[in-house]
Here is the input.
Amino acid sequence: MRRYFSILTLALLAAVTAFSQELPKREFRGAWLHIVGNQQIKTLSREQIQQWFTATLDELQAQGCNAVIFQVRPQADAFYASSIEPWTRFLTGEQGVAPDPFWDPLQFMVEQCHARGMELHAWLNPYRVTSTDQEQLCPEHLYFRKPEIFKRYGKQLYFDPGEPESIAHTVKVIADIVSRYDVDAIHFDDYFYPYPVAFEEFHDDASFVKYAAAQGFEYWQKGDWRRHNVETLIHAVNDTIKAIKPWVRFGISPFGIHRNKKDTPDGSGSQTNGLSNYEQLFADVPAWAEKGYIDYIVPQLYWRIGHPAADYDELIHWWNDKNYKGQLYIGQSIGTFSEPDLENPAVTQTARKFQLVRDLPNVDGNVWWPGWSLAPQAQPRRDGPQRPPRTERKPFALQDSLKRVYQKDLALIPAYTDLDAVAPEPVASIKVSGRGISWQAVQTDDVLQQPHFYVVYRFDAGQTPDISQSSHIVKITRDTQYKPAEKRNGKHRYVVTVVDKCWNESEASKEIKW
Here is the structure.
């Protein structure tokens, strides 16, 4: 054990030495929590699932994460209470069967995330219906009422993106979620047109013949027509979200390569050699950002620095340099952070990857995949709701690096000023109350200016309050009170700010001595 802690201590000291930047006050720090393929959930009771989810959120919060991207529609089904689509089989083991006793996982996670000062982004897959040809759809599934808008490809079933009813149904599902749940964003991943299956064509000739000419496409423009279909969905989803709740964002997490340079006549693609969003998945994600149809992009840069076909360094610079509208976060594969650094193989690539994220001017944060692996100790087991705490981890564990070095200070999410750039009013009053500090917000009917969270800052006596530094943030909360950890002796000063739904921050309150 001593030897392990010595190795871990040396690793962390190396990380601190290699990464001496002041931590940013604003940075998106998300984690994907997936449901599709997660066969463990259906074997657990409601109490076990909830304990697993809350323990995971506690650990993500301890590691500095401020957002969760939670999968709620894995396969044209629902990990929440829906009158439009059936309950997912990943919750109960059988599609269409509600949990018993009843509970709503999405509502639960929204409440739990917000109670921790974290955002909840509802993650949906727009077109996938099944993952294998062995899966059974429940009799109430839309497929049995509208089989003409679905296509089989490989061993899977998909919506046909060329059918307007496919778009209309997906938009209806999203409108329902945004209307009924206090989600902070809607999130799509990289599945648009299906990933190619060798020696098989996606047979959408019928919808191409039916619609393409009237939409202005010639017989030789099928690729452009497919991109038009996906963009039509994206545009409609964003318009629908903003009409219901203008502050709810819409984000896309595409495959990490937009286009390879060899496939672009003007040489605008990346120096890579892999599958392309544009050519194979028919998703022109940068164009959607430029047109204002999405609010953020999270390219999945799941490769190591120096990868021969898809170099992380090449790709993060490519996405940074395009200067698209909205915000850019980097989808990070946790496993690649243990790869040896190219210049110093004795250490990992962790420090270099963080340096790139924080030095490049147009990169606004990270999203971790898979998020569950950041909290392995929260994983449930069959004979109890939670595994006993682990006494050791592998050296260079990313969890320790996030908690002690790279995300040790809390951070606000970058403000979405394209949606709203007006800062909310400061708190109306603040005082010492009982055994803590309490405050009141200014009342307003403007939903965009209403408090989303409060940010509590702490300073030593004699320090001039400076809310620009993340090291002074001690709490991001929805409560209107805070109990300091230390005893009241007048040696500390506290101020509180208001953050609105687009993360604009108010001026600081007056100082409170504690």
